[in-house]
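Take a look at the protein record below and tell me what you see:
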Amino acid sequence: MTQTTLSRKDRRARAAKAAKYYGIADSAAALTMHEAYEALAAADGPHAARLAHEVSQAHPANRHPWLVLGTVALDRREAEAATKFFERALLIAPTDPMGLAGLGKARVLKADIFAAIDLFAQAIERGSEDVPMARLYADLMGRLDRSTTAGRNLRKMAERMKTAEIWFITADAFATGESNAEAAPAYEEAARLSPAPIAHRIGLLKAKLFRQNYRGLIVGADALLAEADLPPAHRDEIVTLRMAALRACGETERALETLSHRFEDPAQFQRVLGFSGNCHLDREDFRAARIAFREALHLVDGGGLWVRRAYGTFLMGEGDFAAGAPYYAGRQPDANRRRIPYENSDPERLATRDRLFLVDEQGIGDQLALLPIIGRAPLPAGAKVTFVGEARMKPLIERSGLGIAFAETTEVDKMGVAPEEMIFVGDLVRYLSVEALAARPLGGYLNADPVQVEMTRARYREMAQGRPIVGVAWHSSDAITGAHRSLALETMLRALPEGALVVNLQYGDREAELAQAARSRPDLTLFHDAAIDQFADLDGFAAQIMALDRVVSIDNTTAHLCGALGHPDTHVLIPKGAACMWYWGRQGSPDRWYGNLQLHRQAQLGDWSGPLSEIAAL
């Protein structure tokens, strides 16, 4: 029923409701404001602007006309006008989500990306339900390599709105940021709310990949590929996911058969070429791997972030740091490189720096591995170096032997840091060589809190009563390499000495695995220390490690922390093939990186019997 057909009583009721909703005592103006929003929803910008302008003249202290005028200016791509209108609205209501989102979009039009994403995050926090803004926010954060942060903000929006669309945007953000454990349930929720769209069904395949349900993925992919009306772009993506699952299952030949598929999407074919490179690495055919990576690198203009990183790490795994470092530099998106160019790490530039800010990237394990390279960089004597990272790194950095300061990521903007004073920590690899690592490895630069170490050691010794105290970590959640790097806890326990106190160092809820493993080795005492949370308290985790007699771990953050701490009796299980991280090189038992770890390498892909026998014989 339109306003013209309403009775006088109904018009009064509607006017009263509008006046309350828009905060305008003048009922006629309130109805005009309502009509302006309706015109905006109908994409009639000129009419919406005329009505909003009318209200703004009579009620300039009300935010709503300015919000409508700002939105119309955005639609016209009039950045300056939109900025002024939204700023006017935010002066009246500083936390209005529509105003924050609108001003963020205006900042995008003005190419002020960092201000825009900050405004978008505030809008989400304040209750925005602007889905186009959410998509834009996810895209911009992805370009800045900050997708995981975007996903965690967007998840608040998804939990509030409860729609499949926003859950799917959230899932994609997590997947882009390689936060697989957070992406999987978001994809599953999107499909639960709306199961029919093909994108959501593919999202379920990705969830299976992230949960390492590779057989389930293959079955699901085969079912989708059997559908005759499947669009080619989706078919390409499904084929690529299926290949990743086949390789994770150890079915290398079947995975390589994927190359016979006629791809229409060059980006998906590029990923398949990259996966084929990994297949060749699994077979130790390094020449074929090099050819596959280089073909993937040149297939799409610029190579793509992941393939540049993959080829760079391949070369550095071979020991060729000089050739690998420039490719590895391409891991950062262009938006990040405009802010922090690779050239900032050039030796002639570092030689002039009296202060330098090392910006974190990737995971904690990678940061621990890369940070000590700063000691090889050609900085002038007395230069002040600050590591910029997560708050949980602060105690360890400030107590380290590197002589560097610490600042949280959120603090940098307040410190007056010039762009040329920043480098990404991974850019330091250009200062490494196999010979330099052999002469002076990188380990032992962190120092755990001695008081915490002694307190934790005393607790464990009281429990052990003279028995060995061994820490264990056995699982990686990485969707692509995790299956090849992980093993069952009960399998790992075969290598441990009789009667040992076994301390759980594995992240996440592992209660069921611990209970099952305990039944296989009743002579062992398996202990989960609830007093220590490695995610929230990295300093406490370091103290826990140094309180242990021995550590047996797969290649994960635990192994890197043991290396950085210089733990004297740590044994790391190294997989064969592509899942062997580049830090460890291709061969050798003492690690080339930290210098204090003992590496136990597979002789056959997927077979841990040899490495475990080596550890059991100690």
In short: Residues 294 and 425 are 25 Å apart (CA to CA). The chain is about 55% helix and 5% strand. The chain has a mean pLDDT of 93. The longest helix spans residues 232-248.
